[in-house]
Amino acid sequence: MRHRELVKFACVGAVTFVVDNAVWYLLKLTILVEHPTTAKGIGILVATIVSYVLNREWSFRTRGGRERPHEAALFFAVSAAALIINVVPLYLSRYALDLQVPHVDRFTQEVADFASASVLGVALAMLWRFWAFRRWVFPAEFGTRG
């Protein structure tokens, strides 16, 4: 059961990875050029909504017992923490390491953005979400710690 949930969770992650990055790049290359972390945050928020529906109805469909409003509140609380976890590497890359134009060329900036936000940030947030969703949001049985 756990293996099947992990595979489904990873598939949902793949879909939301595409949604997140599509929104992020659309915003950061158009109206939020000067605010890449804000653009990333918006991309994550859109992907989080998609993630809730897919995880609720597919990945963890056989779990839980919580009422939907309570479950949704927990899901979005866990996801809010994941959003922070996800944007911290991008913020550090851009502002602490100065991996942005004019300190580096545009190609280096974009590679650093992708590596920090879409690889490292997503990986850290994914680990957090999988653990927290199983433990608190979609427990094996209501009231257990999964």
Textual characterization of the structure:
The chain is mostly helical. The chain has one domain (2-137). It is built from 4 helices and no strands. The protein is elongated, with a radius of gyration of 16 Å.
What is this entry, summarized?
The protein is mostly helical and 146 residues long.
* Overall body shape: elongated
What letter string, H or E per element, gives the SSE order?
HHHH
**Unreliable spans:** none
Count of the domains: 1
Q: Overall pLDDT, averaged?
A: 90
The residue fraction in helices comes out at over 70%
Secondary-structure-derived class: mainly alpha
Radius of gyration computed on alpha carbons: 16 Å
Name the beta content range: under 5%
Reported for the largest beta sheet, the result is: none
Cα-to-Cα separation, first versus last residue: 12 Å
Extended strand count:
0
Q: How many helical elements?
A: 4
GO cellular component, one term: plasma membrane
Keywords: Membrane, Transmembrane, Transmembrane helix
Family: Belongs to the GtrA family.
Membrane topology: Multi-pass membrane protein
Short key terms for the protein model shown above:
GtrA/DPMS transmembrane domain-containing protein, transmembrane helix, 0% strand, 4 helices, membrane, 146 residues, GtrA_CellWall_Glycosyl, elongated, mainly alpha, transmembrane
